[in-house]
TrEMBL record:
WD repeat windows: 21-62, 107-142
Annotated organism of origin: Clastoptera arizonana (Arizona spittle bug)
Keywords: Nucleus, Repeat, WD repeat
Protein name (Swiss-Prot/TrEMBL): Uncharacterized protein
InterPro entries (UniProt xref): Swd2/WDR82, WD40/YVTN_repeat-like_dom_sf, WD40_repeat_dom_sf, WD40_rpt
Swiss-Prot/TrEMBL GO biological process terms: RNA metabolic process
Keyword Nucleus recorded: yes
Family: Belongs to the WD repeat SWD2 family.
UniProt lineage: Eukaryota, Metazoa, Ecdysozoa, Arthropoda, Hexapoda
GO MF assignments: chromatin binding
A GO cellular-component term linked to this record: Set1C/COMPASS complex
Record-linked Gene3D superfamilies: YVTN repeat-like/Quinoprotein amine dehydrogenase (2.130.10.10)
Locations listed in the record: Nucleus
Main location: nucleus
Length: 205
């Protein structure tokens, strides 16, 4: 096994663009690596999903989502599957088989645009945040929402690396930490951040 590269300043400055992909005809709105890191998926406002081989630097497949649109795409733990939010018709989250371009399951519930999607690092569950001021907890095996949180403003969400805690960013000014096993009891800690300029958070890690 080759030694790990340390991303120190002079190493980062030495990086150069190795490949440019120009298949999309509109703005790319989301990208994600597969759990193994050998595949990259992207989606665009032209309603196309692109799948790339990272080792070969080649486009593997194009999947169209003209009916529902596509945003916030994420690989799941199952091979050749992904979830994404919708930009057309409604705000349903969709579970897609990339092998045959068929939907495995739909996750309805949000009433406004979904702005945050996060897959659990350890199991088949995910979090979604919406402009309807809710965060929902889902299980990929069921179309029914497993948990619902009403918040005071625009929410985004993320899991910790162990999948035991999740963070909710609210109105781009507060971060609330919840125990996934007892999130209905409220956050166990809240951080209030002072904004230097007006902006909306698009994600947290």
């Amino acid at each position: 096994m080759s030694p790990m590269m340390k991303l120190v300043d002079h190493v980062v400055r030495s990086f150069k663009v190795a490949k440019v992909f120009r298949e999309n005809t509109d703005k790319i709105n989301s990208i994600d690596f597969s759990p193994s890191g050998d595949t990259l998926i992207s989606c665009s406002e032209d309603d196309q999903i692109m799948i790339y081989d990272c080792e070969k630097g080649t486009l593997v497949k194009t999947v169209n989502s003209k009916k529902y649109g596509v945003d916030l795409i994420h690989f799941t733990h199952a091979k050749n599957t992904a979830i994404h939010s919708s930009t057309k018709i409604d705000d349903t989250i969709r579970y897609l088989s990339l092998h045959d371009n068929k939907y495995i399951r739909y996750f309805p519930g949000h009433t406004k645009k979904v702005i945050s999607l996060c897959i659990s690092p350890v199991e088949d569950s995910f979090l979604s945040g919406s402009l309807d001021k809710t965060i929902r907890l889902w299980d990929l095996r069921s179309p029914n929402c497993q948990g619902l949180m009403h918040l005071s403003g625009r929410p985004i969400a993320a899991y910790d690396p162990e999948g035991l805690i999740f963070a909710a960013g609210v109105n781009s000014e507060n971060i609330k930490l919840y125990d996934l096993r007892s999130f209905d009891k409220g956050p166990f800690v809240t951080f209030k951040l002072n904004q230097e300029k007006e902006c909306d958070w698009t994600g947290i890690k």
